[in-house]
Amino acid sequence: MSTTQSERLRELLEPLVISQGLDLEEIAVDSVGRKRVLRVVVDSDTGADLDQIADVSRELSAKLDETDAMGEGEYTLEVGTPGAERQLTEHRHYLRAVDRLVRFQLTEGGELVARILDVDDTGLDLEVPGVKGRKATSRRLGFAEIDRARVQVEFNRKDKKDMTEEEEA
Predict the structure, then answer these.
(1) How far apart are CA 154 and CA 69, in angstroms?
(2) Dist. CA 42–CA 53, nearest whole Å
(3) Tell me: the pLDDT tens digits for 47-59?
């Protein structure tokens, strides 16, 4: 997809997404055989539920139908959220990932897996899990030290609500 088409689509669709209380995270047009697929990724600080995604999908579809932004050919519109292992690229992504385990690729090489405890304008306060029974340690990581960051899926971690309920029992 050309930068021009991407910019046009973003300018056209972003106000509609924002009006639904969501952020437009990504737009991609892919060819699948002879058909094209327009993928729109949306999110918010509280996440996006199925009703919100359906509403924004209808709004985007109507707007695309009344314009020539996608040209004359057939295409399929897919609207969704970033997914469980989302890449963190914006400050708001880090804020949304507080209390999540993240794999960081560091600018000076190497990698770090840690839980985000707090986010401010210059970086992150992290908890680095202990290895082989050792206690977790604290670490400060500036945004300039991060090359890439991706949320990790945790299957057996209890959320804070579950841990509080167990402590009370």
Answers:
(1) 40
(2) 8
(3) 888 999 999 999 9
